[in-house]
Automatic annotation (TrEMBL):
<feature type="domain" description="DUF58">
    <location>
        <begin position="198"/>
        <end position="373"/>
    </location>
</feature>
<dbReference type="InterPro" id="IPR013783">
    <property type="entry name" value="Ig-like_fold"/>
</dbReference>
<dbReference type="Pfam" id="PF01882">
    <property type="entry name" value="DUF58"/>
</dbReference>
<dbReference type="GO" id="GO:0005975">
    <property type="term" value="P:carbohydrate metabolic process"/>
</dbReference>
<dbReference type="InterPro" id="IPR002881">
    <property type="entry name" value="DUF58"/>
</dbReference>
<protein>
    <submittedName>
        <fullName>DUF58 domain-containing protein</fullName>
    </submittedName>
</protein>
Length: 436
């Protein structure tokens, strides 16, 4: 049978038949000396690891659920060719489960004085900053018998941003916004402060909008139309307390709230309104203020990248005081929180009047689609009990929403997929009604 590779080398060095010899020190030394010499030569001919030059380039940010490519450039400054295995280490959350080994390990050959690039593809599983760990290089000699190994610190950070899956709704909401602005043939009947044009009266129009002078000049009643107000202030408040940590589907409630906030921010900034962000539980977790329209969305996603729910009860009084300091003038305050009875009745309701006296308040909450499915379940005793429990939970949320409505608050309660468009629709309705 033909021998190949290392087996052929060992046979040539005379080490294979050692098992049939009588063991003696002389025989052992005679047999192993050529092998030791070969290993020493192989080690000496392996490219040194410490003298390699390593640099990084590539993506510095990525949306959650997408891939980021980070390129590692290896420069061989020695006079020997580099034959190496490279391990580019990153935190475990930088990969999908089971893909770390194949994604982080590379085979590399670099001739003397040249450079080569290897690309590590990351697919993070959670938001935040992912920082590169050390790069481990194992340099082999030409025979592959011995290797040098060393580590290099090559810093690089990839920021994992919220996915903003609701951006698919933005074109349709912008089309509705253009209708409100009078840029299409649809006329706005809402109240505003900027006069647009005159049109004929139709039943249901506000009589305060009738232009009596124009009516006197013609035989039909004329009413004024208004453009929606611009340059309004909107404060988005993310409740990052313990209720935001509850999982709805595969993600915490906070993630769905952030997605809805991003869609509203993108829409409002296009509408000419100013958007700020406050994340709060017992202290300020993030604050974005005074950004220009083009910088609002990048600033928000960067601020949200590090946000995680805190397992503490949200301080409603502290949240209210901070909101009033952040928005000293009349604003639309959008509070993304829970509609659970206890946090609302014991926390928010006692201090809600401080907000509603000065601002327009909108409360948005994420409902659990599993509860909705349970409420319609039938077929056996267990399903009926589950349906009864789901109906009770829904009734409690409805009572809480009614309490907020009686205090003049607009309430949006929807599942994670429906919350962003529903919140955008509520904003457009307030804008059309001149309530901003």
């Amino acid at each position: 049978m033909a021998l190949t590779g290392r087996t052929a080398l060992l046979a040539a060095l005379g080490t294979l038949p050692v098992g049939i010899w009588e063991p003696s020190w002389t025989g052992i030394l005679a047999v192993n000396a050529p092998l030791a010499l070969a290993c020493a030569c192989d080690f000496a001919l392996a490219a040194p690891v410490r003298r390699l030059g390593l640099t990084r380039s590539g993506d510095t940010s990525v949306r959650l659920g997408e891939s980021a490519d980070v390129t590692l450039t290896v420069t061989n400054t020695s006079g020997r060719p580099l034959r190496a295995r490279v391990r580019d280490a990153w935190p475990p959350s930088s990969w999908q489960p089971g893909t770390e080994v194949t994604a982080s390990r590379h085979l590399l050959t670099v001739p003397p004085g040249e450079r080569r690039r290897v690309t590590t593809r990351l697919r993070p599983t959670c938001r935040g900053d992912r920082r590169a760990d050390r790069v481990t290089i194992r340099s082999y000699g030409p025979l592959g018998l011995f290797a040098r190994q060393g580590n290099h610190e090559v810093p690089w950070t990839v920021r994992v941003l919220p996915p903003f899956a609701s951006r698919k709704h933005l074109p349709s909401k912008l089309a509705r916004l253009r209708e409100l602005d009078g840029r299409t043939s649809v006329l706005t009947r809402g109240e505003g402060t900027e006069f647009d044009s005159l049109r004929d009266y139709v039943p249901g129009d506000d009589t305060r909008s009738i232009d009596w002078r124009a009516t006197a000049r013609q035989s039909r009643v004329a009413v004024r139309t208004w453009r929606p107000e611009r340059d309004r202030h909107i404060l988005l408040i993310l409740d990052t307390g313990r209720t935001a940590a509850g999982r709805v589907g595969d993600a915490p409630r906070l993630d769905a709230s952030m997605d809805a906030a991003l869609l509203l921010a993108a829409l409002a900034s296009r509408a000419g309104d100013r958007v700020d962000l406050l994340a709060y539980d017992r202290r300020v977790r993030a604050l974005v203020q005074g950004r220009a329209a083009g910088d609002v969305l990048p600033s928000l996603v960067n601020a949200m990248a590090h946000l995680e729910p805190e397992l503490v009860e949200t301080d409603a009084r502290g949240l209210t005081s901070t909101a009033l300091r952040t928005a000293p003038r009349r604003s639309l305050i959008v509070l993304l929180t829970t509609l659970d009875a206890a946090p609302i009745e014991e926390g928010l309701l006692p201090v809600l009047s401080r907000l509603t006296q000065r601002h327009t308040v909108l409360v948005a909450s994420v409902s659990d689609p599993h509860i909705e499915r349970m409420a319609t379940a039938r077929g056996n005793t267990e399903a009926v009990y589950e349906a009864a429990a789901a109906a009770q939970a829904q009734a409690e949320r409805h009572r809480t929403a009614e309490q907020l409505t009686r205090h003049g608050v607009t309430v949006v309660d929807a599942t994670p997929d429906n919350l962003p468009p529903s919140l955008a629709d509520a904003y457009l309705a307030l804008k059309a009604a001149g309530r901003l």
